Amino acid sequence: MTAKRNNPVALIREAAPFAIRAERASDVVAREALLDACFGDNRHARTCQRLRDGRAPATGLSLSATHQDGRLVGTVRLWHVSAGGRSALMLGPLAVDDDCRGLGVGAALMQRALAVAKARGHGAVILLGDAPYYARFGFVAAKTGELSLPGAFERDRLLGLELIDGALDGAWGMITPTGAAVPESKATRTRSRTRKAPLAVPHAA
């Protein structure tokens, strides 16, 4: 009788318990609840929201993170803007459910969004967020110093990333929305909250 061997088995890293995919119409209610939890009831009064109100996100750049149990646990969208005469995208809001902190959901959403933006030929991405967090993705304040937002903002939080070298060269002036307009009735419905919001982690406004 041959003795049973206790051969060591290499540990296989578990697959991420979430997936990144294009946003669906069925995500809207959960997305809005997540954003309410993350940014508060006054989020529609924030400076960056002025660049999104009444506008459609850039095509292909509304992404959702879903947990393996089916819950929506993260969201990010990007929007067409003119950055002082330079065509660019404004990233935000980016939010992650608090239950999924530490799983890399925010980083995965960022990486996918930037990859899609680059593949679609966009030249630059701008956001308002914490420099230490976004530096890992290449965002810096080097070429946003002459840009402004339509409202109060902290200068050191206005960051940019060039997907094409020189895309933000000479960018100066007010950042303004350029995305396609959406019907007011649809925009109003999107802002309505229909369920209690979960705790969440805010990233980009």
When the domains are counted, the total is 1
Q: What percentage of amino acids are in beta strands?
A: 25-35%
Q: Give the low-pLDDT segments.
A: 1-13, 192-201
Percent of residues in helical segments?
Answer: 10-25%
Largest beta-sheet characterization = 9 strands, mixed
Protein name: N-acetyltransferase
Pfam family, one: Acetyltransf_7
Organism: Bradyrhizobium uaiense
Region (Disordered): 183-205
Overview of this structure, please?
This protein has 205 residues and is of the alpha+beta class. The chain has a single domain (18-202), classed as Gcn5-related N-acetyltransferase (GNAT) (Aminopeptidase), CATH 3.40.630.30. The protein has four helices and nine strands. Strands 1, 2, 3, 4, 5, 6, 7, 8 and 9 form a nine-stranded mixed sheet that branches. Strand 4, helix 2 and strand 5 form a beta-alpha-beta unit. The longest helix is centred in the middle third of the chain and has 15 residues, at 105-119. It is globular. Mean pLDDT is 87; it is low at 1-13 and 192-201.
Topology readout:
Layout: E1 18-22, H1 28-39, E2 62-67, E3 72-83, E4 86-97, H2 105-119, E5 124-128, H3 131-134, E6 147-148, E7 158-162, E8 173-177, H4 184-191, E9 200-202
Parallel strand pairs: 4-5, 6-8
Antiparallel strand pairs: 1-2, 2-3, 3-4, 3-8, 4-9, 5-7
Main features:
205 residues, alpha+beta, Aminopeptidase, nine-stranded mixed beta sheet, 4 helices, 19% helix, disordered N terminus
